[in-house]
What we know:
Elements: H1 4-13, E1 21-22, H2 23-29, H3 36-44, E2 56-57, H4 70-80
Amino acid sequence: MRTFKQKVLMIVRDIPKGRTLSYKEVAAAAGSAKAFRAVGNIMRKNFDPAIPCHRVIRTDGKIGGYNRGTKNKTKLLKKEGALH
């Protein structure tokens, strides 16, 4: 059985370029809709380039945090076509 963290990382790994999911959507897909803060904590500690944590944004559409800086997150999302 997978842990919540493992589920979150698998879900985020599969977000395609040009798409985003909210922290809440990731939490729900991992089986715990109210655990969106936990998703944020997992993303903050992720430094694996295979897990595109920059593709996880806030429910209100704002960028949210990023462990490599919000400017880098914005730049990556624009490059991938997820932001205009």
